[in-house]
Amino acid sequence: xxxxxxxxxxxxxxxxxxxxxxxxxxxxxxxxxxxxxxxxxxxxxxxxxxxxxxxxxxxxxxxxxxxxxxxxxxxxxxxxxxxxxxxxxxxxxxxxxxxxxxxxxxxxxxxxxxxxxxxxxxxxxxxxxxxxxxxxxxxxxxxxxxxxxxxxxxxxxxxxxxxxxxxxxxxxxxxxxxxxxxxxxxxxxxxxxxxxxxxxxxxxxxxxxxxxxxxxxxxxxxxxxxxxxxxxxxxxxxxxxxxxxxxxxxxxxxxxxxxxxxxxxxxxxxxxxxxxxxxxxxxxxxxxxxxxxxxxxxxxxxxxxxxxxxxxxxxxxxxxxxxxxxxxxxxxxxxxxxxxxxxxxxxxxxxxxxxxxxxxxxxxxxxxxxxxxxxxxxxxxxxxxxxxxxxxxxxxxxxxxxxxxxxxxxxxxxxxxxxxxxxxxxxxxxxxxxxxxxxxxxxxxxxxxxxxxxxxxxxxxxxxxxxxxxxxxxxxxxxxxxxxxxxxxxxxxxxx
Length: 496
Description:
Radius of gyration: 23 Å
Number of domains: 1
Number of helices: 19
Order of helices and strands: HHHHHHHHHHHHHHHHHHH
Shape: globular
Low-confidence stretches: 105-112
Strand content: under 5%
Distance between the termini: 32 Å
Structural class: mainly alpha
């Protein structure tokens, strides 16, 4: 767990800075943009992610499964980067043709479709570049760079755009341009990184020589095919609710839904750093058939994510309604859907790295099966529930689908590999979460204050009670050690 802890620590800093900035974005965008305007931004973002999932052409899964076989710093990893850029180029060209002749972005009539079409293509191009390059960078045990660019720098640029718009320096059109620049920034940063990193080679012939040497041609093709369908399904699961809301209701509802969902998604943010580096460790362990290491990573990841995400889950449920008072009144409809999104994200975090374990194992084909099963659930439930409950129906659909598949996938891993993420400490954390929620809910009900003061007070109550018992009961060795190191560092600074 050494390399995981080191990368996770660095990534955690970026993540929580990103959460703070994302928090401001969540408040400011709905304050200065109408739900319709924000809905278009969200539609561009969702569509670019969906297109990226299609035109990665299965490369992220191929990288996860096979990069360890090419890892060789002296030979610049046998030209794996050159092959990745070739696939990215093919994906961009294919995507451009697809967009030009098939895809039409549905926007309100008052907006220029061609302008938003162009923004969508630019966002897609650089998101695709980031997706493929970040997979390689993570496999070289550097998950922090992707977190820094996609979670911090991106949000900083987005924050800049809305602030400039709010004070009147730029107009709405320029806000959209800067916003899309933010979406592009992770791809730009990743490309600059690999361009100047000496252990990455661009030699495509070196890659194919290694493929021939290892007799991997058929396995690479098979992995890419399953990765292609799996990546489509994976992003569709995350974005299909917004796409279907756009089609069935409109941009206003998308804007409200996405704003509310942002609060719920915060619950799962800590898992991104842990999963990023864990994927590389798990892939290497599968190469050596080291189930003990995989089991250890599974359990420790689950416990630590349960603790951190559980804290965020309670905080969101209790405190997020007060933040909606700072937004335009039309966003108030989103308050009722937060619990469903947050619960789905908490279960996803709690079940830990099950996706990474299955995707990098010899049974990776089943990951594609689970994804498409989830798509079937999401689409069916959306068609059933959205006409009845509106945006709430989309949230319920996501919660049921994501939770069900995570449970099924965890059971599958237990049956096939005899490993699972649970231990007795997980039960203790659940009990503590329930107790803290009840106490904070009671205090929240009996105290009447200004919404901002109420928010601050409840965050103080939840934070102090929860983390006192987490540390006192020593439920996580990693968290206690990290806190101890921070305290020692502070003491040293004060003494010096």
